[in-house]
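Question: Hello, beginner here. Any chance you could explain the protein record under this note? Any guidance would be welcome.
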Amino acid sequence: MKLKNYVLISLVTGAAVLAQGPPPGGRGFGMGGPGPGFGPHGGKVVAGAPYKANVSMTRVETLADGNTIQQTATGTVARDSQGRTYSLETSNGGPLGQTGPVTRIAIFDPVAGYMYEINTTEKTATRRAVHVPSASSMASGKNGGHWKGGPEAAAAMKTDLGTSVIAGVSATGTKTTHTLAAGAIGNSGPIVSTSETWYSPELQIVVSSKHSDPRAGEMTYTLSNIERSEPSAALFQVPSGYTVTDAPKGGRGFGPPPPPQE
């Protein structure tokens, strides 16, 4: 069983790598969704709040005949005081892990303004310059966004779950229930999905979440062993001896769609 190793360093996978948490359900599997890496497109850069933690994610899908499909991913995430982010993910099962575990590492350096894709087996790095959104553009919504209209738009109801200590940090909880009306996508009856998210305002990260959707199954995401000290600077650097080349211009960036913003 061959273990594939990739390092992905990007705005997509690093600008807020897990700073806002995992993706909504129904978009594939992996720490950050169907694409490589953990983080979002256009995510915010969080400075002055360093941390390092273990991360785990599980998705269980129940088929119509009662059969179940389970996929898991575990790893490590970190962020330094300047907003650089690091993530390591090992996936088991799913499209990426059909022939064995697949390990991916993501790092983004907003100070240098680069993202990299590194193959640790071949000791190579592909570099791509990135634009880091300003705080004003993020606040004004001028940094893009996601279309939420159309026939699949679902009515949402939010419930405040209060405050709790999770993995040693204070987090606020929110439960969101989305109801897709009958007939919206040819469904004979309403489709109801729920998301429960626990967010640390101090660290600006999601520390725990659970999403349930009858179309995609149940997905859980958890941080553990959170350390509040400055991570090793080596985590956020391309290893010495690696060959660095520039990526072709154009095309989609590395990684998956963005996780929910808090």
In short: Residues 1-42, 144-148, 252-262 have pLDDT under 50 and may be disordered. The longest strand covers residues 97-109. The chain has two helices and 13 strands. Residues 4-141+217-246 form one domain.
